[in-house]
Amino acid sequence: MTSRRPDAVFAKIARRYDLVNRALSLGREQAWRRSVIDRLPPGRLLDLGAGTGAAGPLYGDRYVIALDPVSQMLALNGLRTKVVGMGEALPFSDGAFDAVFSAYVFRNLDSVAATLAEISRVLQPGGVAGIVDLGRPRNELAAAIHRAASAVVVPLAGALAGAVAEYRYLNRSLDKLPPPEQLFMDSPLRIRELWRMGPLGFVYGAILTKT
């Protein structure tokens, strides 16, 4: 499989990724995941962009398949069933899952539209997708403050990971997509709930349902 720019970034920072995320979020990144996972139904769940498996302890007794395009990340993932693959072309049959969860992934996708279509396809009717990701705050002044701060803080975190250039890319990705209120408006899935978290509201959670 050829390596896209985001894949090359995550391959390089795989072993320090969770540690740096914990520092950048002041230890809150797992609580943000939990706020979404707790809204998902039981049953078969796809962890889309599962990475090193940080969400694993939050899944309870669900049957989970971890999917990620970066084999170096999956190698560190403790979930039993792991698949190398991309959200834009999920290697699963129609209606295979009761739920899909994705954390801190959407701004690194090649195509959000294609991934949402694939999520809809692999969900059962009535299935639920839960997404948590980062962006800019909705308020213009707060967004400007956050942009200035992240331009300094994120590369410093990259220095801890030995990957300053890679974390500069991750900072730029915060401006890649429109706000979630707009991003999911034309999705094949219906927005059931969308909320903001974190300082200045730069983290969002979204619950989408297949009708």
What does this structure look like?
The chain has helices at residues 5-13, 17-24, 29-37, 71-74, 112-122, 140-160, 164-172, 180-183; strands at 44-48, 63-68, 81-84, 97-103, 123-134, 190-197, 203-209. The chain has 211 residues and is of the alpha/beta class. Strands 3-2-1-4-5-7-6 form a 7-stranded mixed β-sheet. The longest helix has 21 residues, at 140-160. It is globular. The N and C termini lie far apart (34 Å).
What's the gyration radius in Å?
16 Å
Main β-sheet, spatial strand arrangement? 3-2-1-4-5-7-6
| Count of extended strands | 7
Chain-averaged pLDDT: 86
Q: Hey, roughly how much beta strand do the residues contain?
A: 15-25%
Strand count, sense and closure of the main sheet?
A: 7 strands, mixed
- Ranges with pLDDT <50 over ≥5 residues? none
**SSE class:** alpha/beta
The 3D shape can be described as globular
Quick summary:
This protein has 211 residues and is an alpha/beta fold. The chain has helices at 5-13, 17-24, 29-37, 71-74, 112-122, 140-160, 164-172, 180-183; strands at 44-48, 63-68, 81-84, 97-103, 123-134, 190-197, 203-209.
Secondary structure layout plus pairing:
Layout: H1 5-13, H2 17-24, H3 29-37, E1 44-48, E2 63-68, H4 71-74, E3 81-84, E4 97-103, H5 112-122, E5 123-134, H6 140-160, H7 164-172, H8 180-183, E6 190-197, E7 203-209
Main attributes of the structure:
7-stranded mixed sheet; 211 residues; alpha/beta
